[in-house]
Each structure stands twice: as structure tokens, then as C-alpha cells.
Amino acid sequence: MGDNKRYPELKRRLSPGWWTASRHYAMYMIREWTSLFVALYSLVFIYGLSLWAMGSRADFLNFLKNPAIIGFSLVALVFTMYHAVTWFYLLGAISPIKIGRSKTKPWQALVLNLVLLVIVSYLAIWLLILR
Amino acid sequence: MSQDIATIRVTRYRPEKDSKPYFQEYKVPYRHDMVVLDALNYIKAEMDGSLTYRWSCRMGVCGSCGANIDGEPKLTCASFLHDFKGRTITVEPMANFPVVKDLVVDMEDFMEKLVKIKPWIIREKETLPEQGEYKQSAQELERYSQFSSCINCMLCYAACPIYGLNEKFLGPAATALAYRYIEDSRDQGKDVRFPIVHEMEGVWECTLVGECSVVCPKGVDPMLAIQKTKILGATNAIKSILMPRGGR
Amino acid sequence: MKVESHKVARLHAILWGIFSLGGMIAAFLLPVLIYLTAIAYPFNLWPFNGTRDIGFLITGHRLGALFIFVTIAGSLYHGIFRFQSALTEVGLLRYRRALEAVGYFIIFVGIIVLGYYLATWYLNGTIS
């Protein structure tokens, strides 16, 4: 069947703006681009630490108090939380657990992991700062 | 008495005449229980016999009638006109495949991938019928039965932007089918299938868009199959480094 | 060619595994770190409403330094890996090799620098 192509087939490939075609695709792209802020925050943090290493502790502390850094970090926090929420949902989607006759749903994994996030965050603060 | 009318906009492409596709509009009488396939059949029978499209069982089990309806990959036999907003519906060929004519797409690439993953039970040594049947428990069946529901309709490939961007990607249905055999307790073909699904254009291209599972008319959930195959690949790779000779 | 591609694929499987781990780290550990550096410390909120400052997180315990390393290294790896893949999906697929090279270079340098600072501070007693 494949050898008798006397007439050209219409080849169609996606353009770089393919993700604007539907809400699902757009949400996916936003989810993936949260990674940019996760990476950037890490690099900014390392840069801040380098100010300490090559200068003094006060340099690092002042860096964190810089309004531009605070503003950027808050944006990064929003995107990081979006990453966390979508990540937890995906965890639920790829690991359905059978309970009796029914299977767990992704939103249940989302809720469970959000609770875990709060617990882990509190534990980190308690173990590392308060103690 | 004015009859209810639906407007169907269909992609036309006749390679011997047209260099580009175009839309043609047809006005068909509308009944509440009509599906898009009914409208296409009406057009072909009563208005324009040259309209070309695939269909067969008209009840959602053969996988022939896939199309992009109002931008979403759907089976034309399973898409009721009343589910769409308004009375104008756009029907295009399934996305990401080359078009042969009108709504008919070239399936060669998909067929090759289907064969590539060897969709049959592979045994190291065949047992003779006299030696008895292969026994399988209900739990063992459960591990793969959902992935055996695939009707090869290719809607998942039409929905997958990764496949749209990179034709070499193995894709949802082929990987789900490979996983179906990997998880089948009767199958002993992991050594054969793993290199295929774990190559670079295998599962690693997938970035969890998830649209494949959204559009699947049979609830196969190929996204789940791909993720499980990725996890198998990662654990396999670590195992092969830590235990180069042992551990199967 | 076949053997080589098999090795590349196996390497990629492991890199993906690390990416997944990084995703867990970014989801569970990064939010609290950003809260501490961008909200709690600059605005003197709990737990920095007392005498301790954010520097204590790094020098106060070995565990704190480890926490910083794991969280930042994991998040950096995950973020770069995913962003590079996202770039290939908006039209830059043909530059994939170059993007990967740049991405892994940034990850490598970032983790080395971070590890170097923390290790130095640990060895010279700054971290208790």
C-alpha cells in the first residue's frame, strides 16, 4: 500500500505555538515552565551564597533583603507551589492504589501530599531552626 | 415547517487537484440522536459522493473513524452532534498524521510501531498443547487487562504534541501495548521489548502532557503505561550497573 | 551504533530517575526554603522573629547545610532538565544536543560551587 504514492500526501507538523490551541495544552506548557523559576531560584541562591563565601555573612543577609530578590523569590514560590500541586496530582495519576474494589483518584493523592508537605515543612523548620 | 439544520465544515484535500486543503460546508438535516458519522454518511449518500473518510463498525470498537472534531481527536461514530456548542461542527483529519485524501490519514508510521514492539506472547520455549494451558490468576490478569483494550484508533497520537513535534517518538498506543505484554505473566519477552521501549525515542520523549489518556475512548490510560515503563527503565538501568551479570 | 545508542538510553534512564527525585525534592523541600529566605527572614516572621537569622540555617547544624545542598542541588537539576525539555517543545528541537550540553554544564558548575562552599565551611568550622 505504501509504494503506490503517486500523489503527494499533505504533511502536517506542529508549529512552535501549538500549545495555544487548547486550554489543556496551555496549562501543560505553564506547568513545564515552572521549572525555569525552580532552576533560577536555585542559581540565585547559589549566587547569594557566593557573596557570603567571597565576602561576609552580612553580604548574604543583605542580598536576601534586597527587594528585587524578595520579589523574584515570591514569584518563584508561586511557581514552585504550582509545580508541587501538579506534581502531587501526577503522582496520584501514575500510582493508583487499589482499595477493595475501587482505585484511588489523583485528587486524593494531591490532598494527601499537600498535608505531607505541611508536615515536612514544619519538621524542617523545627529541626533546623528552632532546635 | 422549518427543519433543524446542522452545518458540517469538512476538510477537503484531493492531492491530484489541490495543492492545499480547504474547508467545505454542508448543511445536513439535524436529529437529536445524530453522531458526526451519521452526518458524514448523509453528505456522502445525498450531497457529495466524493467525500472520503474511514469508518466501519459505527459503534466504537473498530477504531477506524478517528478525526479532529472542533479541534479535539474523537471517534466520529461516538461524537453526538448535540454535545457540541451551536450547530456548526468542524471535522478535520486526525492531527499529526500525513493526509492521503480528505479525512483519510496515512497510518504507516503507526502500523510500523505496532509491529516493532512485537505484540504477541513471547516464550523462551513454547510449551506444547498437550502439556496444558498457561494458567493465570485474576490478579495477574488485572495487571495488564486495561492496556489490552486498545482499538488502535490512533486518537492518542493525534492528541500527543510530542508525537506531533517528533515523528520518531514511539507514542502512547504502541508503548501501552508493549507494556501490556511486559506485564502479562505468560510473556517472557522483556529482553526483547525493553530495548525498544527504553531507547531514546521510546518512553523518554514523553513529558506527561497526558492528553493521550484524556482522549482515549477505551480507558486504556497510555500515560500510565508509559510512566510505569519509564520506572521499569530507570530501575533496570540502575540494576544493570549495580549487578552487571546477575539479577534478571 | 546499536550498542552505543543502548548505552546512551541507559544513561538517560538514570538521568531521568535523578530528575524524578529532583521533582520530589522541589515539591517537598523547596517551598519551605523559599518561605524562609523570602518571607520569614526579610519580614521577621516565624521562625525568624527571635534572635536567629537565616544564616543559622546553614551554619547552625550539619543537617541544615545538608538540607540546603539536597534542596538546591535537587531543584537545580530538576529545573534545568525540565526547562531544557520544554524548550525543545517550543520549536528548538533541532538544538536539543546544544541545549542538553549547556544545561548539564550549568547543573555541574552549580552543584560543584554549592558543594565547595558548604564543604569548605564545614571543614573550617563555620558549620557547627
Concise summary:
The complex is a heterotrimer of chains A (131), B (248) and C (128). Chain B has 248 residues and is of the alpha+beta class.
Descriptors:
heterotrimer; B: 248 residues; alpha+beta; Ubiquitin-like (UB roll); Fumarate Reductase Iron-sulfur Protein, Chain B, domain 2; 2 domains; five-stranded mixed β-sheet; two-stranded antiparallel ribbon; 9 helices; 7 strands; C: 128 residues; mainly alpha; 3 helical TM bundles of succinate and fumarate reductases; 5 helices; 80% helix
* Low-confidence runs of at least 5 consecutive residues of chain A: none
What is the end-to-end distance of chain C? 52 Å
| Beta-strand segment tally of chain C | 0
Query: Mean pLDDT score of chain C, rounded?
Result: 91
Which residue ranges of chain C are poorly predicted, with pLDDT under 50 across at least 5 consecutive positions?
Answer: none
Number of helices of chain A: 4
- Which chain pair has the greatest contact? A-C, 50 and 54 residues
What does this structure look like?
- The complex is a heterotrimer of chains A (131), B (248) and C (128).
- Chain A has 131 residues and is mainly α.
- Chain A has a single domain, classed as 3 helical TM bundles of succinate and fumarate reductases, CATH 1.20.1300.
- Chain A is built from four helices and two strands.
- Chain A has a two-stranded antiparallel sheet with strand order 1-2.
- In chain A, helix 1 packs antiparallel against helix 2, helix 1 crosses helix 3 and helix 3 crosses helix 4.
- The longest helix of chain A is centred in the first third of the chain and has 32 residues.
- The termini of chain A are far apart.
- Chain B has 248 residues and is an alpha+beta fold.
- Chain B has two domains: 101 residues, Beta-grasp domain (Ubiquitin-like (UB roll)), CATH 3.10.20.30; 135 residues, Fumarate Reductase Iron-sulfur Protein, Chain B, domain 2, CATH 1.10.1060.
- Chain B is 34% helix and 14% strand.
- Chain B contains nine helices and seven strands, in the order E-E-H-E-E-E-E-E-H-H-H-H-H-H-H-H.
- A five-stranded mixed beta sheet of chain B has the order 2-1-5-3-4.
- Chain B starts with a strand and ends in a 6-residue tail after the last helix.
- The mean pLDDT of chain B is 93.
- Chain C is an all-alpha fold.
- Chain C has a single domain, classed as Up-down Bundle (3 helical TM bundles of succinate and fumarate reductases), CATH 1.20.1300.10.
- Helix content of chain C is 80%, strand content 0%.
- The relative contact order of chain C is 0.12.
- The mean pLDDT of chain C is 91.
- Chains in contact: A-B, A-C, B-C.
